Amino acid sequence: MDALRGDSAPLLDVRNLVTQFVTDEGPVRVVNDVSFQINEGETLGLVGESGCGKSVTALSIMGLVPTPPGEIVSGEIYFQGQDLLRISGEDLRGIRGSQIAMVFQEPMTSLNPVLTIERQLAEPLRMHLGMTRGVAKSRACELLEMVGIPDPEDRLKDYPHRMSGGQRQRIMIAMALSCNPKLLIADEPTTALDVTIQAQVLELIMTLS
After folding, report:
1. What is d(CA 189, CA 108) in angstroms, rounded to the nearest whole number?
2. 0.85 exceeded by the pTM?
3. What is the tens place of the pLDDT at every residue in 51-104?
């Protein structure tokens, strides 16, 4: 079912999702028959030990499962009534970042080390929202200020390695929220941070969402 459903439909509806990875010993089901729903304005937490499939579930929703060796074997992922597993790659790229965004576990591996913070923040604004270079730069500065980065205009010129771990994670949050997505997925966004910064980042996500 590809058409949009009624207003009463959940924002996200994951049905019987199965995602597996091919290994030398054969296929391994990392996500096995997972189903859940999220309504607009709701917060849902997936809890489980390391390696139980939380991150792969998130990557499956985003359409970012590395193929090969991974593949979504079966199931349905409805976002606003549209099955993300049955739309074109181009349509999915249009949804990803603009309507569904994700904050990854380790920002240093998610941020591009050779691009400035300004370019990485401005690119989705220009691509998804059609902003001009100047408007996108102003919005990028506002986003850094919103997530608590001091001297935001100066920090736009910096590269990720010049930021602390907490600052890099705040930048990832700013990037995720830049296009005002309807769904924000946070994949253990505080894993690499100390306890004090963990609390600050979680409080920031809850405040901004």
Report:
1. 12
2. no
3. 889 999 999 999 999 999 999 999 999 999 999 999 998 899 889 878 999 988
pLDDT tens by residue, 139-184: 999 999 888 889 999 999 999 999 888 888 888 888 888 888 899 9
Distance CA 164, CA 176 (A): 18
Alpha helices in 48-106 (DSSP H): 54-62, 89-95
Q: Are strands 82-83 and 70-79 parallel, antiparallel or unpaired?
A: antiparallel
Which residues does residue 72 pair with via DSSP β-bridges, in sequence order? 19
Let me know the angle formed at the C-alpha of 128 by 133 and 90, rounded to the nearest 5 degrees. Answer: 135
If you ran DSSP here, which 8-state letter would residue 174 be given? H
Q: Which domains does the chain have, with CATH numbers?
A: 1-87 (3.40.50.300), 97-208 (3.40.50.300)
Phi, psi of 77, deg, nearest 5: -130, 95
Contact between 186 and 53 (Cβ < 8 Å): no
Quote the CA–CA distance of 201 and 209 in Å, as a whole number. 12
